[in-house]
Design a protein that fits this description.
- This protein is α/β, with parallel strands linked by helices.
- It is about 40% helix and about 15% strand.
- The chain has two domains: about 100 residues, Rossmann fold (3-Layer(aba) Sandwich), CATH 3.40.50.11930; about 190 residues, 3-Layer(aba) Sandwich (Rossmann fold).
- The strands form two sheets. Strands 7-6-5-8-9-10 form a six-stranded parallel β-sheet, with helices on both faces. Strands 1-2-3-4 form a four-stranded parallel β-sheet.
- The longest helix is centred in the last third of the chain and has 24 residues.
């Protein structure tokens, strides 16, 4: 059925590289979360693949090292800056009863776990463990017990237990993606406490934090290059240093503002309006024009 449907199209743009198996015509592949196995590289090197698009220079380099022979373009995924709405953000602030005196540290992930959960045994799930962040906040609270921790995402039983034992923690649950930026604007400090290195992938979460004007404290994983390039935060290694960075930003509101403004300026290049035009100009126009020119 897939092959029959494919026969009705002149060209294929896909994000699932296995669709290449069912299409004999020209293909452009967007691979933003690549696996550099020999089988996948062989698929991307097929004669009908015109180009590959990925999200960072690091991933493009890894494609080259893995043996990709096709043109590889770097265009990052974007963020809908248009979803920022001051009125909605203020409504959320009012609903959550946040005062001007409150300092909120915020983190977001679709599903929240700790290392106690069985799911965290899988490497991918370790990305969602907040055990390191929980330990960091314990250190923070030793110095300032009034700093809040707000967590966006569906919490596991162990995360609920952590929240129950710490009144500073607020579980916001699932937030629709179109609303998440308006929640983020009510954070004061964003954290990126990842311990699993994804080898240079593009972090939408970091860009969303920047779009919301937040200063960021991050571990030195490869994807934290956004924080380094933008100057929008502090990159630290280890529990003690992470806690000290949060306490430092808590104490200096002008520093939070300065870092947040740098993030907004840097993040503008990831607005979908800008990224979409890049994609059309640098990839789609180039390759689809050649496809239809050949048809003529």
């Amino acid at each position: 059925m897939l092959r029959r449907l494919a026969s009705t199209y002149k060209a294929l743009f896909c994000t699932d590289i296995h669709q290449i198996n069912y299409f004999s015509g020209p293909v452009i592949v967007d691979d933003d979360d690549p696996v550099f196995s020999a089988d996948r590289i062989a698929l991307l090197n097929r004669a009908n693949v015109l180009a590959v698009v990925t999200t960072t220079d690091q991933l493009r380099d890894r494609f080259s090292q893995a043996g990709l022979r096709k043109p590889c373009h770097v265009i990052p995924s974007g963020v809908h800056f248009s979803q920022l709405n001051c009125a909605k953000a203020m409504q959320i602030r009012s609903k959550l009863e946040k005062s001007d005196r409150d300092i909120v540290v915020g983190f977001s992930v679709p599903y929240l776990f700790t290392d106690q959960d069985r799911e965290v045994k899988a490497p991918e799930a370790k990305l969602r463990s907040i055990s390191f962040l929980a330990a960091v906040m314990e250190k923070v609270w030793e110095n300032n017990p009034y700093i809040h921790l707000w967590l966006v995402g569906e919490p596991s039983r162990s995360v609920r237990a952590f929240s129950k034992n710490h009144p500073q923690v607020r579980l916001l649950g699932y937030v629709p993606h179109m609303e998440v930026l308006n929640y983020y604007t009510n954070f004061d400090i964003a954290v990126y406490p990842r311990l699993v290195d994804l080898s240079g992938r593009h972090s939408i979460k970091l860009v969303e934090f920047m779009a919301a004007g937040l200063p960021i404290v991050s571990t030195p994983v490869a994807e934290s290059f956004h924080v380094k390039q933008s100057g929008a935060g502090i990159i630290v290694e280890g529990l003690e240093a992470f806690a000290k960075a949060i306490l430092y930003l808590q104490a200096y509101p002008e520093m939070r503002t300065n870092l947040g403004n740098k993030g907004k300026e840097y993040g503008a290049q990831f607005d979908w309006d800008y990224v979409g035009h890049r994609y059309e100009r640098e990839v789609l126009a180039v390759y689809t024009n050649s496809v239809f020119a050949n048809e003529d």
